[in-house]
Amino acid sequence: MKLYDAPVAPNPRRVRWVMAEKGIADVEVIPVSIPDGEHKTAGYLAKAGLPQLPMLEMDDGTTITESLAICRYLESLYPEPNLFGRDPKETAIIEMWTRRAEMLIATPFMLGVRLSHPGFAALEAPAPEVGAWNQQAGLKALKVLDRRLGESAFIAADRLTIADIVAAIGIDFARIVRLRPPEELTHLNRWLTAMRERPGAKA
Amino acid sequence: MKLYDAPVAPNPRRVRWVMAEKGIADVEVIPVSIPDGEHKTAGYLAKAGLPQLPMLEMDDGTTITESLAICRYLESLYPEPNLFGRDPKETAIIEMWTRRAEMLIATPFMLGVRLSHPGFAALEAPAPEVGAWNQQAGLKALKVLDRRLGESAFIAADRLTIADIVAAIGIDFARIVRLRPPEELTHLNRWLTAMRERPGAKA
Q1: Which CATH number is A2-77's, of 2.60.40.10, 2.60.120.560, 3.40.50.300, 3.40.30.10?
Q2: Global ipTM
């Protein structure tokens, strides 16, 4: 299998983090430069369908984009440590928290960065008001996570799951526009410090 | 099991549509009025954690919100017809297309409606520029689906999957602000007409 990867982007980082937690070392990682437009070449689009990263290419040539689809597929091949749930009920709870982390925090912060920061202007038409709205939406939702992390060491279960990885990467990406969780969100900050110390955080 | 449901909102409609396709008739459906703020009462929040609909309450009292987490859980109990994939590879492809349908179309259209239409002003601070940006983003992404539906009767497989349901409901919701797929998207419109004729569309 091959993973088409981009270094700064948040979605490829999810896959690298999952691979690190699972100790997956036999996937070939192929860097694709977004600043150089390599994700928009005819060759890449013929495989991916859309200018999206990451992309996983299976040994039979099947390609999938979308980080969480890739991560769940990797879990089917490398089941431990379990990140998506061990039975339907736990899977549902983890998916609920993963979606909350993504839709309330990671996606707004991603748009908040991409539409606001001048470094992205060559890739996407800037929309500063839309970016600012998204930044505020993400910041506001951090309270939901802080409340949850006041009653649980991790977001969705009594162990690390994909929900923690999605949330931590979403929050980290907002550092590009100097957004950080307010200090009073003590539970969130305790968890975030622990997440950043995991080997997967550096993957 | 009980499903807490709201009539107009797009996310509860996903669950009702899935239940109709699977012929699930033994889940008690409890209407919750968003205009009357019933999703923000202390009693509802004690169960759901957030003012989100739909919510599924299992027989053991476990509650989950997030429509797709609920739908996947229902599939574990009512496997046929299969909507999420029969093996890891098919599951990955269906999840990829479901995420594309959601992130490129359904979520932008939902925000495009909620932030723009005066009927939602009592529920959420209007942000017309953000709403307009989202409407345009969703409209632009319809071309991706049209291209896909030029080569496939359904979006993610050779049969109906959750990706079709998410996409059709996202497009339908945009009718509130009079957005419709352009006529030249002939593949998309052919598929949309067929989707609207399914019994699940009326659920």
Answers
A1: 3.40.30.10
A2: 0.97
**Residues B72, A58: C-beta atoms closer than 8 Å:** no
Helix B10-22 to helix B67-77 angle (10° resolution) is: 10
| Beta strands B28-31 and B2-5, pairing class | parallel
**Residue B77 carries which side chain, given as an amino acid letter?**
L
The answer for B25, left when phi > 0, alpha when psi is -120 to 50, beta otherwise, is alpha
Length, in residues, of chain A = 203
Contacts of A6 (CB under 8 A, 6+ apart): A12, A31, A32, A33, A34, A39, A53, A54
Give yes or no for B45 touching A (CB within 8 A): no
pLDDT tens across the length of chain B (203 residues)? 999 999 889 999 999 999 999 999 999 999 999 999 999 999 999 999 999 999 999 999 999 999 999 999 999 999 999 999 999 999 999 999 999 999 999 999 999 999 999 989 888 899 999 999 999 999 999 999 999 999 999 999 999 999 999 999 999 999 999 999 999 999 999 999 999 999 999 99
Q: Which residue of A has its CA nearest to B132?
A: A130
**Which residue's entry shows tokens 């593949």?**
B187
Residue A64 pairs in a beta bridge with A56
In A, residues 67-96, which contact B (CB 8 Å cutoff)? 68-70, 72-73, 76-77, 88-89, 91-93, 95-96
Are B112 and B134 in contact by the 8 Å Cβ rule? The answer is yes
| Protein fold of B88-202 | Glutathione S-transferase Yfyf (Class Pi); Chain A, domain 2 (1.20.1050)
How far is B160 from B148, CA to CA, in rounded Å?
A: 14
Q: What residue in B sits closest to A128 (Cα-Cα)? A: B130
Q: Is A143 on the interface with B (CB under 8 A)?
A: no
* A133: nearest CB among B72, B89, B130: B130
Give per-residue pLDDT as tens, A148-168: 999 999 999 999 999 999 999
CATH architecture, domain A88-198: Up-down Bundle (1.20)
How many angstroms away from the CA of B64 is the closest CA of chain A? 6
Contact B93, B156 (CB under 8 A): yes
